[in-house]
Each structure stands twice: as structure tokens, then as C-alpha cells.
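Homework help board

Subject: predicted structure for assignment chain

Our instructor gave us this sequence and asked us to write out the predicted structure in C-alpha cell form, then describe one feature. I got the C-alpha cells but I'm not sure how to describe them. Can anyone check?
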Amino acid sequence: MKYDFFTINFFPVIGIFFMFVFLWKNSHLEKRIKKMFYSLTLLVIIEDVIYNLELALSTIECSRYLITFVTALGYTLRPMLLYVFIRIILRDKQKLPKLLLVSPIVICAIFSFSAFFTDITYYYDDNLVFHRGILGWTPHLIMLVYLTLMIIFSFTGKGQKLVFERILIIEIVLTLLIATFAESLFGSYVVLRIATTAVLIFYYMFFQSQIYQKEIIQKQKAQIEMTQRFSIQMVSALAGTVDAKDSYTQGHSRRVATYSKEIAVRLGEDEEFCNRIYYIGMLHDIGKIGIPDSILRKDGRLTKDEYDLMKTHPQIGEEVLKNVSEMPTLYYGARWHHERYDGKGYPDGLKGKEIPLEARIVAVADVYDAMTSTRCYRGSLTQEEARQEMIRSKGTQLDPVITDVMISMIDDDKAFVMKEK
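My C-alpha cell output:
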């Protein structure tokens, strides 16, 4: 066969080029997956180089053993390429029967290199013309084994596959089969097979990238959900330590967080704000960890000094939470939930809209839960009594708009679940 470098390498080079483009554009792939794609690309390059060398040697005077060695390398490399391809198709999830997959490579190598000792597989005559022996179809049969395994593993492997993916796999297998047998039947040798392999691998890799991308998104989503669950559990545990200091406030933080989130929803705030206000509500009393139990659990009224000490818990709460960089507003509820809408609250005497929205929401939820919960110094109020108290507090202690939302929540609570049980 005449050696024509441009004709032989045109399509393989295009395929290899696009495989590198694929790897460059799909940086989201996991390292192990990218490693397999790089291995596949490298094998295609090496095979193309070997085939060029084989054809070049056949056009010049060289050792018959040298060209036999190069041809044997080419035959051995082809099943290795398909082995990597199968692992990519399975997305490296299924435990592969390695002995079954590696054995054809070993058998192909034995038959290929047997040309040094016998003519039963193939041989080159003195004019370096290629001849096939009686077992010359062995490398092709081994290719057929791999292509069959590709279909079997694709349809029986773990994980669901799209119908289009299965059709694409069959298309790849059939094309490679035609290309492989065309090598012998039509004298086109490896050119057609290399070209179709390179282009189809490029095409399939792009298709696979969409699958990998979806898998990565799903993994990230699962990781985010796990992180959120962990965050809620940690915040709940932290808030629980505060509630546990006072037997009269068990569950207070959780109820305030729940009411605060519902208020935010009814105010039309976005999902991010609603989730954030829940955390803020859970931790609004975190500063009480710095208040002595003797004060928190005291029956009856506090002395002036005790009350002044109790009033420091907003500052303590801020100190605990202000360095949480992932949620810089987390301390708002802890710092300002005792501010009043008329400016007569503490610790900073903020007034009206000067008070952050998060703190105004938590303040309303906190007041309602305090009134409907039993305390050491009084019993709980009924919902109707709490409702009337909140109406009286509109515009003075509490934000009027947020208070109206809370009142609507009370009115909607026909089952009386918004009360300490």
C-alpha cells in the first residue's frame, strides 16, 4: 500500500484534536475519569503513530523482523484501547471482571508476536508484503469479543442508561466491526478503523460529558443537602444547649425559628432569606450561655443587678456569632431581638427601620412564643390573649407590618398548634 501521510492521518488527527478540546472544556470531570480519557487519547495517538510507522517501513528496505514487531504492537494495542473505552462506558462504577477483560489482550499479544516464530497468524515476505495465515483472523475475533462485551456491559451494568445512549453504543460497535473487517476484506487496513474510532470516541465523549455533568450536579446537590441537614442539626444542638439551661424554655428556639421562617414566607422573601431567618431564629438566645443558671432559673422577679446582667446576653450572642463568615447576618437576631420599634429597647436603642428586618421578625416571633409559653414567674396566655397583647404592641414594641403577619398566622391556626405543648 502506498504511504500517503496526509490521507492516512487527516481524520485521526481531527478526532484526536477534538478529544483534547473535550478534555480542556470539561474540567468538571473527576480526576479518575479524566485520567481514563487521557489514557484513551494517548492510546489513539500511539496507535496512529504505530500504523504510520508500519506503512512507512513497508515502502522502504528494512528488516522483516522490525516491521513484524511494529505490526504486532499495533494488533496488541487495539484491544487495550477498547478495554479503556469499556471502562468509560461503564463510568468506572461497576466492578469489572478484569481477568475476562485482560485475557483477550494477552491472547492477542501472543498471537501477534507469534509471527516471529510461525506463519499461522500473519507474515511478511521478502518484499515486505503482508500475508495472513490460517489463524490470521484471531486479532479480529478478539476485537469482536471486546465489542460484544461492550454491548453486554452497557445493557447489564449498574445504573440506568438512556435509550439514546444504548443506541449510540450499538452504533459505535457496528461501525468498529465494519472498520475492523474492512481492513482485511477491502485492503483499507487500519485507516478506516482509526478514523472512525477517533471520531466516534470524540462524539461519545461529548455525550458522556453530559451524563458525567448530571452525575456531578446530583452529587453536589446531595452534598449540599447533607451539609444543610448537618447545619440544621448542629444549630439545633447548639440552640438546645441554651434551652436546656432553663427548663421553662424547652423548644423555645425551635418555635421562634419556625414562626420567623413562616413570617418571612408570608412577607414574600426569597428562599435564601427564609432559610437564613430560620438559623437566626434558632440562635437568637445563644448569648444566654454566658448568663448564670441562678439567674435564668430564678423563681420570681430579678433584682436590678440581675436584670442588668441578663440584658448583656445580646452582646454575648453577637460575639459568639459575628465571625461566622458564611452567614454574616447570623448575629442580627441575637444582637437586636430586644430592640423596640419605638426606640426604647436594648442594647442599642434602635428605632423603626434602623432595626434589621431579621431582628424585627425574630422579635415578633419571640414575643408571641414567650406569651404562649409557661414561665417560672407566670403561666402561659391563651392565643386570643396573646393576640390582643400583640395588637396593643403594634408600633410601640413591635413592627406593625410584621405583627399583622403574625396575627394572620394566629387567625389561621385553627388547630391551636402555635402554642407550647
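Reply (TA_rk): Your C-alpha cells look well-formed. For the description, you could write something like this. The two ends are 91 Å apart (CA to CA). That's the kind of observation they're looking for.
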